[in-house]
Every structure is written in structure tokens, then in C-alpha cells.
Amino acid sequence: MLDDYVKAKHLGDGQYRKDVASGRYPYLTALDDIISQGSISAENHMGLMEIPISAIAGTKTRGRQESFATNFMPILSAKTEFALKWGILYDAAVNQGIRDPILVYEYMNRFYVQEGNKRVSVSKFNGAVSIVADVIRLLPERNGTKENNIYYEFVEFFKAAGFYGIRFSEEGRYQKLCDVLGLPMSRPWDMDMRKNVKSAFDRFSDVFDRKGGNRLEVTRGDAFLLYLTIYGLYNLQDVSNAQIESNLDQIWNEFLKNALDVSLVKDPEVLEKQDKPNIFSIFTTQDKGFKGDTLKVAFVYEKSAETSSWAYAHELGRQYLKDKFGERLDTIKFENCETPKLVSEAIDAASETGANVIFTTTAMMIEASVKAQIKHPDIYILNCSVNTNYNTIRTYYGRMYEAKYLMGALAASVTDGNDIGYAELCPQYGTLANVNAFAIGAQMVNPYARVHLKWTGLKDGDWKQELRDENIMTISGPEINPPKRISREFGVYMVADGDVVSNIAMPIFDWGKFYEIIIDSILCGTWGSSMLTRDHKALNFWFGMKSGVIDVILSRQLGYATKKMLRILRKGVMEDRLNPFDGELYSQTGIIKDSDAPRLTGEEIVNMHWLNDNVLGTIPPMEAFDQRSIELMRMSGFMMNRGEKADEGSSVGR
After folding, report:
1. Pairing of β 380-384 and β 357-360
2. Residue 138 in contact with residue 119, Cβ under 8 Å?
3. What DSSP state is assigned to residue 578?
4. Three-class SS of residue 238?
């Protein structure tokens, strides 16, 4: 009996020494030391249920806190009464199992034992993965922090799923899990589905941990969601553990620490730095270089070039490539790929035609692109999105905020009065940087300029009518119109008496220039770069005005003084001497950085969650947007669950 206690104590002593050597507290955490009564908004009795032992973090009160190491293994002498009781309980557990439930408090998705510390210790020593517990939930007060927001998302998820164990590191992922499963988060699932999902998660976690996943910083929930996104739930229910392990091998780099970060590659010159010719090592360490006479490139569009300005802009890029490279390049396009199924079918069809490179041209296609890359490892797939942290594929976008900065300055210079309109689809990564750069540019020319922000992707409301009602005459609208839609309401334009008078400028994505940079590097054999593959970061090619990917077109009607101002500003941006996010920055709620602070990094710009102090508008809650906008926000991971009036302080503080 005591022999087993001595073995358990050996494990506890080892953990104790490891914690002391690392400067960590070597005993169990006490929940009472973490919280005060004032920080709890509610106490709910959840009843008896099975909880994962791995989520048991400590004790409710100090009590027996120092009888265990942080791994719940005992550390008291084998000669104590405690050791005798532990041994008796161990024998009973081996012969009869643990019968009596423990009593725990759940706080922030972790459990703290009020009664049953030794039962937890014995169960962990025996390798149990779960234990029956009577659970009391302590709800923290809402405070708007990331951790708090994730927890409250879990609370809603629990109402639907009814089980513990799945934890995420980012906001929005509980909803995304429900979306991937095709299940609601707004109402309870039936019992069979609860059992199936929990069983699939437990099975995945077991295989994932045996491969070393429990030593990574990614949570099991994050890994589970990525696996489901690529392979589907059926793959966990109907295949062998060996197949699950093989699937994990294919996407293992996605789970590594650096894969959770996105490296923004801002300079195209990085593609000219090579170690070996003719390798695509930027995608993989395996040599899969292009060795044919003609490179075949496929483009996948969500809509058609006739109906979508976005698809039209990329189609212009494809046509540019055909003219630029001639017989060295063969291109093909697939239009109206509006669902993941259609995107996957288009990529399969491109593969059958012999495509070497595939560009999927909207963020909506990111997950289908990742799945396709696993299916077609010899094809190189790039997706047009920003800040998506998959390293299986590469992503690309442009620094549009640079052009918007110039457009803001231009709009302020031609506006009678101080009010300018700005229309944007929905808040995604990079969108708020565009809004703020425009507002800062306007503010630079006219310190009293006010930018009226309107979201065009809302379910209700008419942004054009709102601007008319506010008597706004100068407006920044969509970048470009589809070719067959007769309208001048794009770029920066001016209206009078409700009629468009003129376009004065437009910012553009020159996708032809971007695609030329990528294709030229492939054909010249300089695509590979050890600098970009030494770690496992997701890479996003984020080129700007200097590379020619982003530019502005000015109306001939503009006066020479205005054009001169824009040329000076443009040169400053291209030479990196001028940036909207240098110097003092103020949001609607206060200072973002003072004048002596360094320029915002690319990551800070892309992840911007604040509105400049001269922006009049709100960041509405997600449910206010139409379905396509919601899907775009979820796909990019940009989640806005709170919407405060801008003039009262937005939820997007520093």
C-alpha cells in the first residue's frame, strides 16, 4: 500500500524541485488567493458531471494546499497519517473505483477542489483522464479583457454543449467550432451529439498528447478546431488512431509556437535573397521547384469579374501576367466559387489541368485553401487575406492604409467645411487601419476634419441616405466599381444635390504588379529564402506603395497645387519618411501613443482595435452585420462583440 504512495511521492518531489528551480510556487494554487468576493458576479450550482482531471488547477482554500506538488502528487512523508489514508484510498480505487464525487469550484474554466484532494491525486496517479464532480461555478465580473471575453464565450458554448474540456486561446473560436460542426451555439445540442463531439475531442486529445502536443503552447481546443477545419468530424469518428496520427503529421507545424504568429513580409526584395536556385522552400523544406517550360497559374474568384469589383481587380492582374510573361506563363480562372465546396472543386479542377500555382482571391477561401494544400502538396497555394495564422499556405495583401492616408489628406483639401464621409464593408483585419489612416490624413490638412464612418455590410440601414441626411458632400467609397456597373460612387468622390459630380481620386490594388513579383521570383528561381523558413511562422506578403502594389490615381480636374501636395506625400510614403502612425495618436477614448513613442509595428497596425479621435461612428456588434460580413469577420478571426457609440468611447481602446 505504502509502496504506491512512495512512487507517487517521488513524482511529487520531482515536480516540487522543478518548480522551485524555475522560481515558481511549488504547491497547489488556492482559489481564495486568486479572487476576492467582490470580483464574483454570480455563483451557480451546475450539479454532478464528469470533468477533465487536466483542468483541475488547485484547491478552493489553503487547507491541504501544501500536501501536494503542483501536479497533485503528494509530498508529505510516508510516515504520516496522510500517507496512510492516501494508500487506503488508492487500494479502494484500484479494487472498486472512485465512487464518491468530489466537490469543486469552477472559475475561468479551471477547477479548484473543496472536498476530494486525495481522490484527485489517486486518480491522476492511476492515469484517469476524468472524474465525477459536483460543480459550483463562480462567474467573474465582465471586464473586457481577452481572457474574460473568451471565458464568457465558453459559458455560452457550455449551455449548448454541456461539457467541459475544450479551451481556446483566442476570441471567437467557440462560435467557429460550432460553425465547423454545423451545430448551433444558441440552443442545447441533443445528447447523442454531445456525446459524439466529446468523444471525438477526447480521442483527438489522446492522440495529440501522445505525439507531444501537451508540451506545446497551443491548447488542445485550438488544435482540435484546426484538425476539424481541415479533416472534418467524421475523420475522428470513422478512422483509426494511426490515420489520425498521420493526419496530424501533415499539419504538425501549424501547432508549433511560432505558427501562432504571423510574420508580415513588407519588402518584395526579400524574394531576391536566395540560398539555392529553383526551390519553393518558402512553402516547405522539401524541394519542389518548378522545372517545366511553362508555369501554369490558376485564379479562383468568389464572384465573376462582371459582377464584382474585387474579382475584376484580380482579373486585371491575371490579364497583366499574360501580357507580361507571354509563352512562359499559362493562366486559367474559376469564377463564382462562393462556397468552400466550390472553392475545393475549383482547386481540384486546376490541379487536373496541371496548375503549379493557385491564387485564391478572398479571405472567405482561406480554410478551403488550407484543406486543398494538404490534398495537393505539390501545388503552391496563396490566399488573399491578412493576419491569418496558417503556415501550410502563404497569404498576401496590400498596405492599403498608405493610399487611404493620402486620400484623407486629399479629401480634406477639397472639402467645403469639416465633414467627410467614409464607407467600409465591415471591420476585418486591416480595415480599421484604413479608416484611421484616412482620418489622420484628413486631420493633418484640416485639424477640424471629422470623418463620418458608415458600414455598408449592416443588415439594416442605408449608408448613402445617412450621408445625404448629414449633408456630406465628399465621400470615400469602394475602391473600384465592376466594369458593367455605371456609377461614379467609388474612390473619393463629391456630390451635389444628391447627384455625383465627379471622382477626384481612387486608391488601387495593382494586383498585376503583385502577381508579377511572385511569378517572376518563381521563374527566376529566387522564391526560396532561408530567412523566411528558419522558424514556423505564418507568412503574409504585405506589400505597399513602394513595391507598386498599392497606388493612387488622381482626377485630371484637380488643380496643380493639390496634385503637388499628393506627389510630395506619396514620395514621403514610398521613401518611408512619412507614415500615418508616427507621432502622437489619439483614439476616441484617449491617447494611443505619445510623440516620442516609436512608429506602430505592422502587427499593431493590422490588429488595430481603435478609431481615431476625429472619426464619428461606431464599431457595431457582430450580429448587426449581414451574413456575408459576419462570415468574413469570423474567417479572419476579427471578432467585435461589443458596439459602443464612438462619441461615448469605443470598445477599441489601446
Report:
1. parallel
2. no
3. -
4. helix
Averaged pLDDT score across all residues of the chain: 86
Under 8 Å between Cβ of 518 and 507? no
Terminal-residue alpha carbon distance, the chain: 57
Cell for 91? Answer: 487500494
Residues of the chain with CATH 3.40.50.2300: 260-398+513-546, 401-508+549-648
Contacts of 13 (CB under 8 A, 6+ apart): 69, 75
The percent of residues above 90 in pLDDT, for the chain, comes to 58
Are the beta carbons of 431 and 424 closer than 8 angstroms? yes
Q: What is the DSSP string of 470-503?
A: TT--EEE--S---TT-----SSEEEEETTEEEEE
DSSP state of 122: H
DSSP single-letter state for residue 599? P
Q: Output the pTM of the full model.
A: 0.74
Q: Concatenate the DSSP letters of all residues of 404-441 into one string.
A: HHHHHHHHHHH-SSSEEEEEES---TTHHHHHHHHHHH
Report the DSSP beta bridge partners of residue 307: none
99-127 exposure pattern, b = at least 16 Cβ within 10 A, e = fewer: eebbebbbbbbbbbbbbbbbbbbbbbbee
CA 499 distance to own-chain centroid? 40
Alpha-carbon gap, residue 404 to 554, rounded angstroms: 13
Q: What separation in angstroms does the CA of 589 have from each of 171, 397, 608, 615, 647?
A: 22, 29, 14, 11, 9
DSSP element (H, E) containing 243: helix 241-251
Q: How does pLDDT run across 365-402, given as a tens digit for each residue?
A: 988 998 898 889 889 899 998 877 777 788 899 999 99
Q: Are 406 and 438 in contact (CB under 8 A)?
A: no
| Nearest one of 589, 573, 597 to 399, comparing CA atoms | 573
Please state, as a whole number, how many other Cβ atoms lie within 10 Å of the Cβ of residue 374: 14
Q: What is the CATH number of domain 401-508+549-648?
A: 3.40.50.2300
**Options 3.30.1360.200, 3.40.50.2300, 3.40.640.10, 2.60.40.10; which CATH number does 260-398+513-546 get?**
3.40.50.2300
CA torsion sign, 435 to 441 to 447 to 451? negative
Closest Cα partner for 475 from 459, 485, 484, 464? Answer: 464
Choosing among 3.90.1530.10, 3.40.50.300, 3.40.50.2300, 3.40.50.10860, the CATH entry for 1-141 is 3.90.1530.10
Identity of residue 597: A
Give yes or no for a contact between 10 and 96, defined as CB atoms under 8 angstroms apart: no
Q: Tell me phi and psi for residue 362, to 5 degrees.
A: -140, 155
